[in-house]
Amino acid sequence: MASNVNPTVRRRRLGQELRRLRELKGMTAEEVAERLLVSQSKISRLENGRRSISPRDVRDLCGVYEVEDQRMVDGLMEMAKASRQQGWWHAFGDIPYSVYIGLETDAESLRVYEPQIVTGLLQTPTYAEAIVRGGSPESSDAEIEKRVQVRLRRQERINADKDPLRLWVVLDEASLRRVVGDNNVMREQLEHLNEMAQLPHITVQILPFDVGAHSGLAGQYAILEFADAADSSVVYIEGVTSDLYLEKAPDVQKYSLMYEHLRAQALNPEQSRQIIADIAKEYARGSGLD
């Protein structure tokens, strides 16, 4: 494994290999769990990369699957050791969506639909703070600051000089109209959004109110794609107490098709930049700057 691959991706690749070995053996996750005297959910979490896996877990699973090639067993155990290393986000303590951050850090491209707010990778510091504070009123100032700093650190992927994350964002018009913070915060945010939208690796489209019903009414989601063919695409749906990760091909295809419909219904990039600029001017007038 390459040393620059982050631990989330290591766990995911290792889990895929363990699933492949189980399927070659013709066993179900339930049967494996019974053999090892563990829960079926543990086997599922190990295979989907959501849980840290120890070299001992790998050794035990390889024993159940009767893997005779010791070099393969040793290689998988080394992958398990590497997967227990920490990514940059662990320095910030307990982050609820750390699995997503690990995937985003390694993704080659990201497609996002946001119905309510400007997506995190394109937020200004003041807008991000207002979002976090409003969404978590019970959090301390220190916790809010930590979450904002994590969000800003994530933005390094789209600001990188080499191989930046390719980002395509469809925003509902509501995300531009919802006043987060105050008029000055919104003006600054929309001006920043338009500036970022002019970068060659970033595309922003606005879905106007007059579109009516559309395929994104169920809510926010993101589709992550990776350069390595071994890493399947992932649909990420953020929840309040838990998040959902969809990796099965039919699920990814369904969400990808929904996204194509959204892109087709949304304003084109040039029209989108114009409506963003127009609404930014409205906020400027509202704050007495125009």
UniProtKB/TrEMBL annotation:
It holds the Pfam family DUF5753. It comes from the Bacteria. Gene3D superfamilies: lambda repressor-like DNA-binding domains. InterPro entries: Cro/C1-type_HTH, DUF5753, Lambda_DNA-bd_dom_sf. Coiled coil: none annotated. Residues 18-71 form the HTH cro/C1-type domain. This is Helix-turn-helix transcriptional regulator. It comes from Streptomyces vastus.
